[in-house]
Amino acid sequence: MSHHMHHGAERVVTGTKPEASADMNVTPLIDVLLVLLIIFMATLPLTQKGEDINLPLESNAPVSTAPQDQIVVEYTADRRLSVNHQELGIADLEGRLRDIFETRREKTLFIIGAPTVRYGEIVAIIDAATGAGITKVGIVTEGMRNAATGK
Which CATH class, in words, describes the domain spanning 71-149? Predict the structure, then answer.
């Protein structure tokens, strides 16, 4: 029986085994967090939905009467809506305002609401106005209108 021996087989390789590092690599974590931060910062302005409303101040000073080419939406206490004395429904308001303001340079709308009307209903009118591309919305109170017309 021949005893065949591989040369060098008896030599055991004793190298240092690479140990797992106890420190976590935080670079990918920081990258992900920065991307998330940028995404949140970019979407934040889109989530804030608000309108700039010029709230009327009740005063005894006479208000200059609106020029004849002014567009006025009137909302009465019995919930009737009219644009320059032409009645229409809230569903048709945005389309009607879009038609009116399409050719106008001055995109200002005045809303006259009865004192008993709920604020949310006026906001619905303002939403329709901004949807139609109107940039300025003014709210006129009964007191201001009476002062302007001299009642």
Answer: alpha beta
